[in-house]
Amino acid sequence: MLIPIILIQFIPINRNNPPVDNNLVISTPKDVEVILKNSCYDCHSNETVWPVYSYIAPISWLVAKDVKNGREELNFSEWNKLDDSKMEKKKEEIIEEISRDTMPLPIYLITHPSAKLSEDDKLLLKNWLTGR
Ligand code: HEC
Predict the structure, then answer these.
(1) Long-range residue pairs from 84-93, CB within 8 A, at least 24 positions apart, any chain
(2) How far does the chain reach from its first CA to its final CA, in angstroms?
(3) What is the CB neighbour count within 10 angstroms for residue 110?
(4) How many CB atoms neighbour CB 79 within 10 A?
(5) How does pLDDT run across 32-82, given as a tens digit for each residue?
(6) What is the C-alpha to C-alpha distance for residues 23 and 18, in angstroms, rounded to an integer?
(7) Using an 8 Å Cβ cutoff, are 109 and 116 in contact?
(8) Closest CA relative to residue 126, chosen from 26, 18, 32
(9) Which residues have any ligand 1 atom within 6 Å of their CB?
(10) Ligand 1 atom 10: the closest Cα is on which residue?
(11) Residue pLDDT, tens place only, 100-124
């Protein structure tokens, strides 16, 4: 039983943080930035803080998968690569996800309870996303 647990630790997984180009990073007021960094950046940016458990297989596989899929859907470090219509689409998706409390992912909140968005956080994000 122990042998496979040890062996799977040697399966390489991608825990890279690609370089951040400041010209591509989403530009927001400070209060919005604080919320995004605290609640979303671990999966939706190139500045992932990899927790200790992300180094232990098989949990590491789940973490790496969420980060990979998360970045593919939405990457605040590469936001300015999107054209105007894609940005609008992503903004709508963000509003939808936070309104339904589906983001941050529930599994993430177990280890990052402070990432849960308060009603005030959601309002602030929505007002900013809709330009109000
Ligand atoms: C633990 C990782 C994680 C965190 C933290 C996280 N997300 Fe996600 N997010 C994902 C993954 C994985 C996907 C793609 C698969 C899915 O939709 O479940 C995703 C998808 C999305 C999408 C696209 C949904 C669609 O329509 O397909 C949006 C928008 C989004 N997240 C917004 C956010 C916002 C805003 C935050 C912070 C408040 C956040 N996420 C925090 C992992 C995360």
Answers:
(1) 91/129, 91/130
(2) 57
(3) 8
(4) 18
(5) 999 999 999 999 999 999 999 999 999 999 999 999 999 999 999 999 999
(6) 14
(7) yes
(8) 32
(9) 39-40, 42-44, 66, 69-70, 73-74, 93-94, 97-98, 103-105, 108, 117
(10) 70
(11) 999 999 999 999 999 999 999 999 9
